Amino acid sequence: MHGTDISVPKGAFVTRKEAAEIHLHCHVKTIDRYVAAGALTKYKFGRKTLFLLADVLALIKPVGVLSTTSGRGRACVPFLSWGMVTFIVLSVAILWATFFLIH
Fold this sequence. Notes:
The structure is a single chain. The chain has helices at about 15-25, 30-35, 55-60, 80-100, and strands at about 15, 40-45, 50. By secondary structure, it is an alpha+beta fold. The chain has a three-stranded antiparallel beta sheet with strand order 1-3-2. A hairpin with a 2-residue loop joins strand 2 (about 40-45) and strand 3. Helix 1 (about 15-25) packs across helix 2. The longest helix is centred in the C-terminal third of the chain and has 21 residues, at about 80-100. The protein is rod-shaped and about 90 Å long.
């Protein structure tokens, strides 16, 4: 051919809609944002735009769960500490006891 070496990547390809809805569970515009940011490579076959399934799946990254003792964020921290719960329970008990003693 005219000295051009065009290598087609090996692997399964998916459409933009398949990548978004089936594999990443996002909107198709999000796929366009990944392409624009350079995080996802698109391949044109005539008028069709396809993505390597391996590239799409590489966008999925595991995220660790924070422990309550890590001190890094509030995602897993209880809403109230045990000391605060104890304080509230004792305060309510004292209020009820005072109410019943007065009446």
